[in-house]
Amino acid sequence: MRRSAIVTRVINPAALMAEVQSTEFGAVSMFAGTVRDTNDGRSVTAIDYTAYTSMAESELENILAEAEDRFGLMAIVVEHRVGALALGDVGVAIVAAHAHRAPALDCTRFVIEEIKKRVPIWKREHYADGAREWVDPTARGVATT
Amino acid sequence: MSTVTVQLFASYAESFGGPTLEISLDPGSTVGDLVHSIRSLPGAYALPESPRVAVNRRFASFDQVVEPRDEVALIPPVAGG
Prior knowledge:
The structure holds two protein chains of two kinds. Chain A is α+β, with helices and mostly antiparallel strands. Chain A has a single domain (2-136), classed as Alpha-Beta Complex (Aldehyde Oxidoreductase, domain 3). In chain A, 33% of the residues lie in helices and 39% in strands. In chain A, the strands form two sheets. In chain A, strands 3, 4, 6, 8 and 9 form a five-stranded antiparallel beta sheet that branches. In chain A, helix 2 (53-71) packs antiparallel against helix 3. Chain B has a five-stranded mixed beta sheet with strand order 2-1-5-3-4, with helices on one face. Chain B has a single domain (2-75), classed as Roll (Ubiquitin-like (UB roll)). Chain B contains two helices and five strands. In chain B, strand 3 (52-55) and strand 4 (58-60) form a beta hairpin. Chain B is of the alpha+beta class. At the A-B interface, strand 4, helix 2, helix 3, strand 8 and helix 4 of A face helix 1 of B.
């Protein structure tokens, strides 16, 4: 099974873990990206995520289909949140289940890296000095989760 | 000539001052032609050398032809995750 969604509500990683629960799987790997309080040395107070929702949903589904092909039969669920997030909130959660640990671990890494390359979602950070700026990972050559 | 509506998001929506652009194109024009036209507009300073463009919710190459009813979007550097 696979499921992906862009959501405006709080993401509950435990619920995603329960969704893939099955005795056929010996490994469940979960990645959660959370809102951090600093970025590039600046104090961050909150962030907004916005998306080109229809394309983001389509790209997420494409990534999961590719992951299924690459890592073999498994269960995988991804949710990415949009809207206003506070420090510590979960922005994205990926849960992959497989009979064995290596494909489950590798799959979560694959999915988050692909999300960062090609899913049209944007992040605006709010800083302690009152400024708000869109994050451009290409400007400094590194991703920012 | 036909008019194509280009969707804008995030930093591009701010630099161009709105959520869409209306761009006139000759029949047979490509994504590259579209980007060339957009570069003449105020706000284009925000565009990188090769901005990403989506046509019908898929990333498109610069040689892809743009049809009048295509859903076209200019995609700023993504920052999900």
